[in-house]
């Protein structure tokens, strides 16, 4: 399947996930608790679930979270999905929403870095490792919808390898799916965030990309513009950018900016 076909499938999958979450939210809470729909980048999943659990224990709010590639989520918000908070793994999806008047407030929140995970031996500790004969397939999140893939493309272009490695590339819907390809043996190497590599099963993590070969990996947190102010959204963002949540995300390898 060509690249555009894979990206279409990724967007379709994200649409179906979001639709399921929205339907789930529409039924209302059976405990009289307020509900809040939050969209977040897939790479945040484990830490975000932990933070949400803490918030729900301390507040009369049920958080419904949908994880997917950031640009796919931004497109769903632009199409009317009722998310009130959005956390992106990069700035472009937020710029996409800002251009459509859908950003009420935003702040840079977390940082991360790019590594590779592998189920084979990498003798080189540089991007040239990906040209080795034992690296048969390279899994990468779709660069046009997932910031992890965009950062990976940027790093490979910086090394002069993007075009020459195209025949080895396997495109995944998001960064966790790229790592799953490697875990399943369907790819030799996956380009992922350092925080994803921490939970990789049976894989070696190798730091091959110079930090100046790609732009700063920043996770912005956004309250989505709506006709009415949403106090629950504001309070949840305040919690995310506070000390208690910061400790959770730091324990998962992220570095809070604020």
**Unreliable parts:** 1-8, 10-15, 17-29
Helix content: 25-40%
What value does the average pLDDT take? 90
Q: Based on CA inertia axes, which overall geometry fits?
A: elongated
Strand order of the largest sheet: 2-1-3-10-4-11
Q: What Rg is obtained from the alpha carbons, in whole angstroms?
A: 18 Å
The strand count comes to 11
CATH-defined architecture of the largest domain: 3-Layer(aba) Sandwich
Strand proportion, as a percent range, falls in: 15-25%
Q: Can you identify the CATH class of the largest domain? A: Alpha Beta
Structural class: alpha/beta
- Per CATH, the superfamily of the largest domain is Periplasmic binding protein-like II
User: What is the rounded distance between the termini?
Assistant: 42 Å
Counting DSSP H or I runs of 4 or more residues, the number of helices is 9
In the CATH hierarchy, the third-tier topology of the largest domain is known as: D-Maltodextrin-Binding Protein, domain 2
Largest beta-sheet characterization: 6 strands, mixed
Q: Could you give the order of the helices and strands?
A: HEHEHEHEEEHEHEHEEHHE
Q: Any idea how many domains?
A: 2
């Amino acid at each position: 399947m060509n690249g555009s076909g894979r990206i279409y499938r990724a967007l379709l999958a994200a649409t179906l996930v979001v639709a399921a979450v929205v339907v789930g939210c529409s039924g209302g809470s059976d405990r009289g608790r307020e509900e809040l729909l939050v969209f977040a980048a897939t790479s945040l999943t484990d830490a975000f679930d932990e933070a949400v659990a803490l918030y729900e224990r301390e507040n009369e709010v049920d958080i419904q979270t949908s994880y997917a590639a950031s640009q796919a989520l931004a497109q769903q918000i632009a199409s009317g999905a009722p998310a009130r908070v959005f956390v992106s793994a990069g700035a472009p999806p937020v710029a996409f929403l800002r251009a459509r008047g859908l950003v009420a407030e935003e702040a840079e929140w977390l940082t991360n870095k790019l590594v590779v995970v592998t189920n084979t031996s990498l003798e080189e500790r540089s991007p040239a490792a990906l040209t080795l004969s034992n690296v048969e397939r390279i899994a990468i999140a779709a660069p046009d919808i997932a910031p992890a893939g965009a950062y990976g493309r940027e790093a490979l272009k910086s090394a002069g390898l993007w075009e020459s490695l195209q025949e080895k590339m396997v495109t995944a819907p998001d960064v966790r799916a790229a790592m799953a390809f490697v875990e399943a043996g369907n790819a030799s190497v996956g380009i992922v965030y350092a925080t994803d590599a921490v939970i990789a099963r049976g894989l070696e993590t190798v730091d091959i990309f110079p930090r100046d070969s790609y732009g700063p990996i920043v996770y912005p947190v956004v309250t989505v513009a709506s006709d009415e102010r949403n106090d629950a959204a504001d309070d949840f963002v305040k919690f995310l950018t506070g000390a208690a949540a910061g400790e959770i995300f730091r324990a998962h390898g992220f570095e809070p900016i604020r």
